[in-house]
Amino acid sequence: AKSKYNKLHLHLCDHQGFSYFSDVYPDLPLSPGTTYTKDDLREIVSYAGMFGIDVIPEIDLPGHSTAIISSYPELSCRKLQIPVETKQGIFDDVLCIGDENTLQFVYELLDEIIPLFPYENFHIGGDEVKYRRWENCPKCTAKKQELGFDNFSQLQWHFTKQVIDHLNKHGKKAIVWNESLAGGKLTDEATVQMWLDPKKHSVRHANRGGKVITSDFYHYYCDYPYHMTPLRKTYNFNPLLKGVAPVMQKNVLGVEAPLWTEYVCDFDKLCYMFFPRIAAVAEVGWSKKENLDCAEFEKRFRKITPILENIGIHPAKPEEWNPTPLQRLSGTVKFFSDKISVDLLKSSLSNSKK
């Protein structure tokens, strides 16, 4: 609230477990971190509302679903029980979207959660879906052929539209990650969150009149170190996406600064990663371009740091905000060599000059 954010995007499930207790599907494995009861979620919504913040839940579908399959293997293509993941990654096993039982499961899961969040938006994911299991699944290949689709991106698009329609019946508007556009248009049905979009699907979506949230991976993701994403890189990024026609820039609804917590062990680490970058993203989102000045922002943030520290928020130190090029290289290499795959390291380095 102090940074003028008015939305909290709350990711409730992933390969590693669920962050809430489900009464409808009690066998869903719980994440090793924080888990919430329904009363906890109501309390979060109520408390955030006191500060003018809407809470937007996310149930990521049809990928990021190892945890679901571990307890309900009949919802997968192979029908095999697999363990819950305990590491980061993108995994082959996803929900079988050629099976009508999968949609029934999804609808019942969403119907349980929808009443807990009184706001219009509901995030249904759609990112990082591998197609390997679908390609070898009789039900998925038969469904693709039945619908006359050329590829599995279109089949994912069809699945996503069905889930969007279900949300619409409950008065909710879906938000989806930008990969959901690979198989077709979703102009009026959903807001698209752009995070990593080399084919510019989000730009075309905005130019068609669709709505977009900008959360660019290389500039706004706060779970990566300042060596990879310095403060000035974050502040100087233009969220109005290159290629969006001037008359269509109104379709870029806002900005988001994601922070995934695989490597965030406590509140102090979260504050260190978020501040001052989260404040920089907000300032850019609320300001006219001609009023933006990173050096001035840095001076002002130094002034408010004691205020934040007085309420228990300890930002990164100013000397850590903008590492030198050599520090950036060595720090990024160390981070990725410790935690992330070699392929993602190469991708990061190739984009470090952008």
Class by helix and strand content? alpha/beta
Give the biggest sheet.
5 strands, parallel
Q: What is the percentage of strand-forming residues? A: 5-15%
Please estimate the helix content: 40-55%
Rounded Rg: 21 Å
**DSSP strand tally:** 9
Unreliable spans: none
Write the element-wise H/E pattern from the N-terminal end onward.
EEEHEHHEHHHEEHEHHEHHHHHH
The strands making up the biggest β-sheet line up spatially as 5-6-7-8-9
What spatial form do the alpha-carbon principal axes imply? globular
Q: Distance between termini?
A: 30 Å
Provide a count of the helices: 15
Averaging pLDDT over every residue, what do you get? 94
Q: Can you give a write-up of this model?
A:
By secondary structure, this protein is an alpha/beta fold. The chain is built from 15 helices and 9 strands. The protein has helices spanning 38-50, 66-71, 100-113, 132-135, 138-146, 152-169, 201-207, 217-220, 231-235, 267-274, 277-286, 294-310, 318-321, 325-339, 342-350, and strands at residues 7-11, 13-14, 17-18, 54-58, 121-123, 173-177, 190-194, 212-214, 252-255. The strands form 3 sheets. A 5-stranded parallel β-sheet has the order 5-6-7-8-9. It has a two-stranded parallel sheet with strand order 1-4. Strand 7, helix 7 (201-207) and strand 8 form a beta-alpha-beta unit. It is globular and about 60 Å long. The relative contact order is 0.09. The mean pLDDT is 94.
